[in-house]
Each structure stands twice: as structure tokens, then as C-alpha cells.
Amino acid sequence: METTRGTLEERVAALEAVEQIKALKYRYLRACDRKDADAFRDCFVAEGATMDYGPTGAFEDRDALTAVFRSVGLARDDDGRYVVLDMHHAMHPVIEPLGGGRAKGAWTLRFRQVDRVAGTESVSAIEYDDRYEVENGRWLIRSSHVTVLWRIARPLPDGVTFQGLFA
């Protein structure tokens, strides 16, 4: 991000926008990992959000995406345990305020997922291409496009056990 142009107020506003967008993305990722569908939904603009999550599918609004999140991410097995366990680690943000309450951003995601029913673990390197917008005074995700750079999947070892809040 170029910070040597504009008034001091404009440069500070741009830096504040970048930090607020980072916090938004971290809220989104935390909501995914904590299986918090309401917090997940609240990260997107109310109307007109578009999301293309590659192999997971494309969605035209936050309610459609949240419905998929609920059906896949919150699915439970016969013992009441979550079927899918996720871990999102986003890094290397490049965020560019565009003015007028709009910004774009790129992130690298290291994603790990365990599917307890299929008995598999996958690890992926993913790139996000996002657009953000201020709505009701808050930065929210307007669009997100995911590109999977690579992915490996392997069977879980025999005797693997799970511990923790979602185990």
C-alpha cells in the first residue's frame, strides 16, 4: 500500500481501514474454526455478496453461503460430534483501500481439514482475492474468490483420537 501520497488524515484513514479489514478477515476465519454461523454470516454485506470458493461452490449472497456452512461445517455424526474440523491460518495480507468505502485484498491461507466420517485429513495452500465495502460504518466482505494452489489428502492413521472443544 502506498502511504506517501495524500494528507496525513488520508494516510491515517487508509492505515485504519487496512487494520479494520485485517480484523474483519480474522473474525471470519475465527468464525469458521469456531463453527459460529452467526458470526460467519455477519462478516458479509447484507445484499449482493458474491463468493466463489472453488471446489466448494459459488454463492450469490451471504444467506446461501451461511446455509452451506451450516450444512457442511456444522454437520454432526451419530455420536453428536462434528464431522468436519477446520483450521484456517491466513497470512501475507495485501490490502489496498480504493476510496469511497471500498478496498481490495489478497491473502494466503494455509488450510487444514479433518473429515472424521471419511477418515481423511487434507492440507491446502489457498489464495483469497477479496473485495471489501463499508456498510453501516463497518468493513464487510463484498466478494471473495478462492484459488486452490495445491492440496494433499491422506487417510487418518489407525487409532487416531481427538481431544478438545469440538472433539
Please report the distance between the alpha carbons of the first and last residues: 41 Å
Q: How big a fraction of the residues is strand? A: 35-45%
Mean pLDDT: 94
List segments where confidence is low: pLDDT < 50 over at least 5 consecutive residues.
Answer: none
Number of strands: 6
What profile does the largest beta sheet have? 6 strands, mixed
What strand line-up does the widest sheet have?
A: 2-1-6-5-4-3
**Can you count the helices?**
3
Would you list the SSEs in sequence order as H and E? Answer: HHEEHEEEE
Q: What is the structural class?
A: alpha+beta
Q: What value does the Rg take, in angstroms?
A: 18 Å
Helix fraction? 25-40%
Q: How does the overall form come out from the CA principal axes? A: elongated
Which labels suit this protein?
3 helices; alpha+beta; elongated; 167 residues
What can you tell me about this protein's structure?
Helices cover 26% and strands 41% of the residues. It has 167 residues and is of the alpha+beta class. The longest helix is centred in the first third of the chain and has 27 residues, at 8-34. The protein is elongated, with a radius of gyration of 18 Å.
